[in-house]
Amino acid sequence: MVQLRSRRSSAGPRRIFTVSALLASLALPAAVQAATPGNALVMAWNIDAISTFDPAQIGEVVTSELLQNTCDSLATFDPKDEKKVIPGLAESWQISEDGQQITFRLRDNLVFPSGNKATAQDLAWSMHRVVKLGFGNAASLTEYGFTKENVEQMITAPDDRTLVMKLDKPYPTGLILQAIAANRVATVLDRKTVMANEVNGDLGNKYLATHTECVGPYRLRQWNAGETVVLEANEKYWGPAPKLRRVIVRHVAEAGTQRLLLEKGDVDVARDLTPEDMAAVEKTQGLALSRTLKPQLVYWGFNNANPIFANEKVRLAMRYLIDYEGLGKTIMAYNGVPRASFAQLGAFGALDEKEGQPFKLDLDRAKQLLIEAGYPDGFETTLIFGTLPYAPPIAQHIQANAAKVGVRIKLEQMANAQLFARHRGREFQTAMLAWQTGVPDAHGNASRLIANPDNRPEAKLTQYPSWRHAFQSEAANKLAQAALLERDEDKRVEMYHQLQKDMMQSGPSAIMFQSVMLAGLRGNVRNWTWHGFQAYYDLVSKE
């Protein structure tokens, strides 16, 4: 029996404030607004990518972070150590000797905001729902053998507090706890409330676009698309009350505006600052920067359905158009570290910093590869990218270098929501995005950025960037699967090392950087706690 203690224990007293009064205070002109409300954490963040709060469907970094603070999962990552999994909804779990069954014991005081008791049956239904709806997040379960046909037999709830998860293969237990138990697919939904709002058999998908009916320290109080998200402390939460009553996220697309709001005290936290802004924040009294390495990779992806990019020599040539070191010292000085491997630094099986980034800007090498690929005069293509501060200058950098070898790139910037829709629909030639894995294991990205179980357009595996790039390699698929099931850890590491080296030469994307998360903070913000896999709003306080 694995018996662990959670970071949360007993609940404390709570004060009540009105949302209308809080939003009114936030709307005051900067000249008359002295500070943010003492009972709320106010963030400036670009949140234009939010499209839904349904745990079965969300895939954006912003929405994932918000959901983690509104919906507890079976297990969670330790705030002090991202590689360690600790209890969440489950207070303990037991693993069978053959490694093919995990039995979770849920807490006995789980209650939904509606007042309905949260049971193991609700959780089993919630996990079944993810698979049955078949949105992108279903892949977090289907890649481990769960299907629409077997999920009800493989995930069961024999009583109100027991959830049994059966596996078709002896996957590494630690990986299953990270990839499923600590994933958004293992959140418990209020079945009665959700199904009361079902529309045409959608299992509440439309309703959950704007609601969070789950168990967590906060609940979604309000979302005005492109404007504001308001999270409110959940009065019926099983653990300690959040230190702050509300979290207000203001949509601010411009980094300079975020910095100005932070300096004036109109926000407590700014999330999308440029290197120049960050340098200024570091020098400003009363402000500070918080940094943490993120399991997110920034990449330039190529649509392999296009004959030009189906040629691996063309894809390799594109890697030599990037000045990784130069960008790392300028545009990405605060935002990331050079990284060409699909396995993020810190992950099990990842190549080290040197081996994981063997490329440099080399126009001669790029030109030679293009000649070998049959494009001595280059070609025309497009590059789509979003609104993150570093995206335009990197795109312009690539465009300028590409022109020197005859590759003429048209740049198209768009809102992140549009960018994601185009990318998921394979409606692009090349695209610059970022992808974040949910586990500190090389399998996390191998199973999404590299492996592709079904490359047919009608498969619509939208949560697989490999599918979005129309890339499928039988050899890569086999090696990724073999590494997943290898019980000898040393051999498993060797397999992932080989796969990384192979994919840096022939993979579907030019991975450029691993992200560093930075937040500009007001000096009165205390205990801002985060790491690569989660930010813990409920632990934050203000003086």
Q: What do these coordinates show?
A:
There is one protein chain. Helix 10 runs antiparallel to helix 12 (363-373) and helix 17 runs antiparallel to helix 18. With 543 residues, this protein is of the alpha+beta class. The protein has a domain at 293-516: Dipeptide-binding Protein, Domain 3 (Dipeptide-binding Protein, domain 3). Helices cover 30% and strands 22% of the residues.
Write the layout of secondary structure elements.
Layout: E1 2-3, H1 19-26, E2 40-45, H2 61-68, E3 75-78, E4 81-87, E5 90-95, E6 101-106, H3 120-133, H4 139-142, H5 151-154, E7 155-159, E8 162-166, H6 173-181, H7 191-196, E9 218-224, E10 228-233, E11 246-251, H8 255-264, E12 269-270, H9 275-283, E13 287-302, H10 312-319, H11 324-329, E14 336-338, H12 363-373, E15 380-385, H13 391-403, E16 408-413, H14 416-424, E17 430-436, H15 442-450, H16 465-468, H17 474-485, H18 489-506, E18 509-522, E19 525-526, E20 530-531, E21 534-535, E22 541-542
Parallel strand pairs: 2-11, 2-12, 15-16, 15-17
Antiparallel strand pairs: 1-5, 3-4, 5-6, 6-8, 7-8, 9-10, 10-11, 12-18, 13-17, 13-18, 14-18, 19-22, 20-21
Main location: periplasm
Pfam family, one: SBP_bac_5
Protein name: ABC transporter substrate-binding protein
